[in-house]
Amino acid sequence: MPGPTAAPLGPVAAPGPGGAGRDRPGCSRQESLDRLDYGPGMGATELLVVRHGESVGNTAARAAQEVRAEVIDVPARDADVGLSATGVDQARALGTWLGELDADRAPQSVWSSPYVRSADTARLALEVSGLRLPIVLDERLRDRELGVLDKLTGFGVEARHPAEAARRRWVGKFYYRPPGGESWADMALRLRSVLADVDRYEDGRRVLVVCHDAVTMLIRYICEGLTEAEIMAIGRATPVLNASVTRLVRDPGERLWRLDTFNAVEHLAEQGAVRTAPRGKTDVVAE
Asked: Any binding-site annotation on 242?
């Protein structure tokens, strides 16, 4: 299988029946993980997981929610939606923070979703930081694919696809797959694959990963060995903020990571950048 593509620094393109996270009898997740053997000294030692800066899609989604519109007015397909002016400021603030990290804390490599809002966040942050690192663009870090629900608000889903809205409530957010789209479980499968490659190519390194909010949550789910119920509870309590930093650390040879920092945005305030969250967002609009 070919390795990931490295892009040079520069321009780059209340819980219901399905929502409670029902655990099944049998082998526990921890027991399953205990059967894995990564081998001594294998893998990355730190993940700095960053959600992209505010995008024009985020602002359009908020505007649509406020007027109860059915469709989000975005200027391009999801992969090509770029940063808002606020998102650019957030990416630069992230870069200032990265540039101020001590040498033994700074990232040694960078992986990013190829979606423009993430790739541009990585590019701008690196430019400001002074870190001369290539950006590895990997499509497995892309945002969730929504299929027939793409560009729809929650109001739009209820109005245009009521059967899907009902099915999502029954199945639950983690396992619900819209026609032509992905469930969170589908995303977890591709993220397990990319995290295995991060371990393969970034042995012993600190890795910056620039991605999306659902991807951030699922990286926690995988790396910490969480259950459906646990990650859904975290998601309900704490929306992932734009340009926020989540830090996971792991000793060499260990299987599971431990959470050091989640959803931190102090670096934004320090640089005068606005903090933004997916206000009014439903779990079917772009993440």
From this structure: no
